[in-house]
Structure formats: structure tokens, C-alpha cells
Amino acid sequence: MVSRRLLRVKVLQICYAYLKSGEQTVNQAEKELFFSIDKSYDLYHYLILLMLDVVQFAESRIELAKNKRIPSPEDLNPNTKFLNNRLIKRLNDNDDLRRYLNNQKLNWSNNPELIKNLYNKIKESDIYEKYMNSGVNGFNEDKKFITEVYSKIIFNYEPLYLTLEEQSIYWNDDIEFIIGMIIKTFRTFKASSSDEELMPLFKDEEDRDFVKRLFRKSVLNHKEHEDLISRYIKNWDVERIAFMDIVVMGIAISEIVEFSDIPVKVSFDEYIEIAKFYSTEKSNVFINGILDKIVEELKKEGKIRKVGRGLIGELN
Fold first, then answer.
1. Is residue 311 assigned to a domain?
2. One domain for residues 234 and 174
3. Shared domain check, 123 and 49
4. Are 263 and 306 in contact (CB under 8 A)?
5. What are the DSSP calls for 93-158, one per residue?
6. Domain range for residue 85?
7. pLDDT tens digits, residue range 201-250?
8. What is the tally of structural domains in the chain?
9. What is the model's pTM?
């Protein structure tokens, strides 16, 4: 499922665009928000397919080598451990994956060079050499190898980022999150089972409600939150403060006030981390200081109410 962190990022991106342009209605912006989340789910399936196509390319290379006019002994008796990777076979046999890819018309057919170059990158890696020559042959080792390929090679493969950015503006910041989602999926696959499902788009209806409410509350209460923030900006020219900082703080306030089951510290930490990536170099320190004062005021006014297990004492 799409992580809460990525959902928060999506809300930030659409809120910023909505508040900055003023060209959309709230309903139109909300529709774009959910379209953006759907595109993340497309990327989840698309990046799983990437590895399947790399293995398919590797198989075609072996077949070409066998059909040389004078094949070498290695050409005729290749190491097929990569081709026979059990996790890859499990994914190839996954009906839900194939159905989704077909319905969304997702394929890598227009990127043969990317597939070839990624295969060569993997083949030249220490991860590949260790795997192919380990002498161990089992599902867990196969899974560990594919997981390492995603986390250490695909994650850092710059041509992939460039290709994806050309295909969709919604994928620019998603790759790190989606690779994490793919790795979590692989962890659920067990040697003793063959009927694992891929992750759903949302963990549950609560997550869907979370993103919808967070977006709505953030845009509808933006002016109120902006006025609140301005009261705590001493010795700062409000006009010179990054608009992104204002948006980040506004969304953080919405989450802290509206979601009684999310600890204040969790919301705090999430938006401080998001600010490090999406705003200026010192924004996280600035945002942390302002939010701390605002939360203290909101607690005194009784506007923050936290309930549920583990939240006793949250407002002290």
C-alpha cells in the first residue's frame, strides 16, 4: 500500500499547486490528488515489471549465444541461476500483476536500451557475481538477491529516473517510496506459499479517508492557518518566507488538529522530514520552531484532542 509519508507528500504537492495557481476548484484539485496517487500505484506495478523484463532480456542473450556459429562451452552450458530465480517466476505467474499491467497498458517496449543497460549494470555488480557463484540455491537467496538489486542498483540507477520523469510528471518524487513498497511486498513472499498478493493501493479505507480529509482541511483552512502562522513569525518578513514553508506548516496544523489518533510527535516529525526535501535548506529548523509555538497555543485552547491507545498524556 502507498505509505502515509507518500500520501502526505501528494497532499503537499497538490495543495501547493492549488493555492499557488488558483485555477482549480477544490473538487478538481481533489480529483487530481487521487489521480496522482493512482499513478503511484501504476509505478509500483511498472517497476516490478522492470525486473521481469530484465530477466527476459538475459534469457534472450543466452539464446543468442547458444545459436552462435561457433558457440563456446560456456555459451552452450550457461549459468541459468538468474533466469530461474524463483521470486521472478512467482511474479511472472501472478495473474493480478499481469491483469493490472494489461489494463493500464504498462510496458517497457519503448525502452529497450534501458533494459539492456540495466541488465549490464546488474551483471557487472558484485551482488550479481556473489549470487551466481554462491553455491546456494533456494527461494530465500533468490528473494534476497532481487531485493538487493532493487535497493542497491535500481534505486541508484540515474537513467531510470530520467526515463520515468519523461513519462509522467507524477513520478518525479515517487521512486524512492515505491521501491520501498516493492521491497516490503517481496518480504511477504514465502518459500512455502505460492498465492501471495501484491499490495493494495490503500492499506484500508482509513488511509483513503486520511488523504481526503487532510487535503480538504488544509485548503479550506489555509487562510486561518496562514494568519495563525504569521503571529509567530517575529523579525521575519512574511512576504519573504518561502510559500512552501507556509503550506507545509498549514498541512501539519490540519493533521495535528483533525486526526485525534495520530500523535503530535508523529505529525511533527513527518513534516519536518518532508520540509528537508521540499523547501529551503534551513526550512526544517524554522518550521520546527514555529510549529512548536503554534502547537503549544492550540493545546492551551483545547483545540488538539488525542484519543486512543498510547496517546494518554499526549497533551501534557
1. no
2. no
3. yes
4. yes
5. T-HHHHHHHHHHT---TT-HHHHHHHHHHHHTSHHHHHHHTSS--SHHHHHHHHHHIIIIIITT-H
6. 4-188
7. 999 999 999 999 999 999 999 999 999 998 888 665 555 578 899 999 99
8. 2
9. 0.90
